[in-house]
Inverse folding.
């Protein structure tokens, strides 16, 4: 007698048709979004690459130059904390990031969508 589990049809997956993140625009967010994050209180850390500091330099109104951190996707997800649920491709927007409740945000790249989700979560917090 065959096991009922063995008699079931095993689903097949066509990996070439699965949505991927390989055709995404640059993984790094633009400086304007990084500045929005800083103004909303996102933790600022300095990032380095082979050419030196990989963050955005800005000169303030007082003439002083300071660094605006351009966080990685992992850092923004971590900043969202337990509220973060997922980031995915959607049929109606390039990327959609959601929290565990009802807050969601969209973006042209995964990092932009999650950064906008973090901004939305900050705006939703009681003052």
């Amino acid at each position: 007698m065959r096991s009922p589990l063995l008699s079931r049809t095993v689903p097949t997956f066509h990996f070439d048709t699965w949505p991927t993140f390989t055709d995404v625009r640059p993984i790094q967010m633009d400086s304007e979004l990084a500045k929005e994050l800083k103004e909303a209180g996102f933790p600022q850390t300095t990032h380095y690459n082979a050419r030196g500091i990989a963050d955005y330099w800005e000169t303030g109104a007082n003439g002083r130059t300071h660094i605006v951190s351009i966080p990685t996707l992992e850092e923004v997800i971590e900043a969202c904390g337990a509220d973060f649920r997922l980031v995915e491709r959607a049929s109606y927007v390039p990327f959609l990031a959601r929290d565990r409740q009802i807050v969601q945000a969209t973006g042209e790249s995964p990092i932009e969508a999650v950064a906008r989700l973090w901004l939305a979560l900050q705006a939703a917090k009681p003052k």
In short: Residues 44 and 58 are 14 Å apart (CA to CA).
